[in-house]
Automatic annotation (TrEMBL):
This is PLAC8 family-domain-containing protein. Pfam families: PLAC8 (PF04749). Residues 1-15 have a biased composition (Polar residues). Residues 193-206 have a biased composition (Low complexity). It comes from the Eukaryota. Residues 1-22, 190-217 are annotated as: Disordered. Residues 207-217 have a biased composition (Basic and acidic residues).
Length: 217
């Protein structure tokens, strides 16, 4: 027995309307989301990368506001070949380097021990005698003194450099390095006299401890 086509019921191809309870729940959820001040999920905003501003350390040991790198070091306030900006000091360093060397050492030691500028640094003293007699010590004594002095100056002011550079500069640019160190020390002394970054000395602590809290990004 075969069934005729009239006995089959056609399939329903139309969608039935959702139940009232479902529509009410959806409308309630939409109204709740629309009333929120912030979306329920984090919003990701795309932005172009920007260069980070260089860190600056202020205070008496960096009065020129030379940018400080991520390693905590900076460059000299004055270039090695900028000695012509101070012709008087350069002439003295060229003709009588022992006098400038003695003055630099006395000023730097006084700053390290007291945190204040030397009231009257002398150009004649022990360091002057040692510097004058240094060429007699195998011919390298003067270079050794220059290297040690430059290293101590770099340490106090967190200036970037290395031992090889100190040796080369001390051997071939003694006049320029004497002037460069003297101007770096003078910059701190002038800042201290003006009252920038002055505070009680802490000789036993880090050489940049007096400028903590003044770092600006």
């Amino acid at each position: 027995m075969t069934a005729s086509k009239q006995q089959y019921q056609p399939l329903n191809t139309t969608e039935d309307a959702p139940p009232p309870a479902y529509e009410a729940a959806v409308k309630a959820d939409l109204a709740q989301l629309a009333g929120r001040a912030t979306p329920p999920f984090p919003v990701v905003q795309a932005a172009q990368p920007r260069a980070t501003a260089p860190m600056r350390v202020s205070g008496a040991r960096n009065p020129k506001q030379v940018p400080v790198g991520l390693d905590g070091k900076r460059e000299w306030s004055h270039g090695l070949c900028a000695c012509l900006e101070t012709p008087g000091l350069t002439a003295e360093a060229m003709c009588c380097p022992c006098l400038v060397f003695n003055a630099n050492r006395e000023r730097l030691v006084h700053l390290t021990q007291t945190g204040e500028p030397h009231p009257a640094p002398s150009r004649l003293g022990l360091w002057c005698c040692l510097y004058s007699l240094a060429p007699q010590l195998a011919g390298i004594g003067q270079v050794a003194l220059q290297c040690v002095a430059r290293f101590h100056t770099r340490q106090r002011y967190a200036v970037r450099g290395n031992a090889v550079e100190d040796v080369l500069v001390g051997a071939f640019c003694s006049t320029c390095t004497l002037v460069q160190e003297a101007r770096e020390i003078e910059a701190e002394e002038e800042a201290l006299r003006a009252g920038a970054g002055a505070e009680p000395a802490r000789p036993s602590e880090g050489y940049y401890r007096d400028e903590e809290g003044l770092v600006q990004a």
